[in-house]
UniProtKB/TrEMBL annotation:
UniProt entry keywords in alphabetical sequence: Membrane, Transmembrane, Transmembrane helix
Domain of life (superkingdom): Bacteria
Organism: Subsaximicrobium wynnwilliamsii
The name this protein goes by in its record: DUF2306 domain-containing protein
Tagged with keyword Transmembrane helix: yes
Transmembrane segments: 12-41, 68-86, 106-124, 130-152, 166-188, 208-226, 238-263
Amino acid sequence: MRLSQSSIPERVLGISTTLLFVVIFLGQFIFALYILGLYGISGLAGDFERWNTAAPHGYDKNDITGNIFFGMHMALAAVITIGGPLQLIKGLRNRFRKLHRISGRIYITCAFLISLAGFYLVWVKGSVGGLVGSIFISFNGTLIFICAFYALKKALNKQFSEHQKWAIRLFLVMSGVWFFRVFLMLWLTIFKGPVGFDPIAFQGPALVFLYMLSYLCPILLAEYYFRTVKKSNINKVVGAVLLLIITVGVSIGSFAATMGLWLPNIK
Ligand code: HEM
């Protein structure tokens, strides 16, 4: 089949978009294995002290409510990290429409619940990163609320093209904490150490930059994609190159996070 002139940029854009999502899906699958391996297995075995390996405020024997919220946050994290990518795969969506509707409602409910539990952890139990870290993760939680609300509303109103856009925005903000770990590890790989932040207090300008890169940039990029990329061939090529550069960065960061953070804790 002969390709028309305009179909080449279209195809290049399609391939680079798919490539980025494949890398994100694979990385999130490993993150989900880590959550199940570290928090799931030790939780089932009653070895709650192990929760504090990577989350300093995870388990406290004197704080039953806090432990319940943390356990709930981890269970939901596993569900959404596995379920989110599955919701976005077009083939599955088209083939199993009813299942997509049911799992979509579960995903959106989990989005609200994980953020509510997250707010409790940040503002009641305490978290790493000080006030600035708490404000940024809460900003991410607020974006999750907004995107989950509109993804559901547009689906119920049968505005499916709008629903699809809100579902992608929701997936991207739900992936914020994953992006943060990936970009942090990319940063540490590029600069060969904690440049621009204090690794003990976990505070500093580099982290502010990484928070914005993780929680805000993905939805801004999606906005650029929705509004501009498809308008001309040159935009498609520029969009494709941008996505390929991001894919390289996300791949390196994902690999570093897998080797440095996740694999050592999967037991
Ligand atoms: C929606 C996707 C989210 C996922 C998949 C997720 C996943 C996780 C995981 C795996 C941990 C344990 C730390 C680690 O092992 O890396 C954690 C801890 C935590 N999360 Fe989330 N989270 C999400 C959203 C949120 C939100 C929206 C908030 C706040 C509003 C939040 C607040 C926290 C806090 C405070 C901790 C404890 C950190 C500490 O021990 O200092 N999370 N989360």
